[in-house]
Amino acid sequence: MAAFAAEYRAPPGWSVDGLALMAARSAVERAAIACARSRLDGDDWVGALDLLSADTLAPYASVELECGAADVAWADGVVVVARDDGHLGFHNWQTGAAVAAPAVAHAGSVRAVARSGHRTVASTGDDGVVRRWDLREGSQRR
Description:
- By secondary structure, the chain is mainly beta.
- It is built from no helices and twelve strands.
- The strands form three sheets. It has a four-stranded antiparallel beta sheet, with no helix packed on it.
- β10 and β11 (130-134) form a beta hairpin.
- The radius of gyration is 15 Å and the shape is globular.
């Protein structure tokens, strides 16, 4: 039986659209949860990336995005954000700061992203295509 242990609530008007667990790789690092959230602002979606303590769900970093965020994944110390502008965003898992320019990933919105290896993620979007990305190369793997 599961027992309720902790809670994170998105700010009013925001939806939580994706979660990814980042396990601690050493005794010094903390386990974390990346949280993608979005809200409608007039006719446009805006998003945010929140980084939460895995133990308490307390936010320790938050980054506002200029577009909606549909999902998140973690690989090789990088949080990858599926964005509704067709790009993937790349962020530091400790601070939320961008570590690279967003990459054009799909025609239309990126709907999902998932870890597909130690240093790779897979994404899919409105175009119906699944792509695999190598975070070391900063490019799509064929």
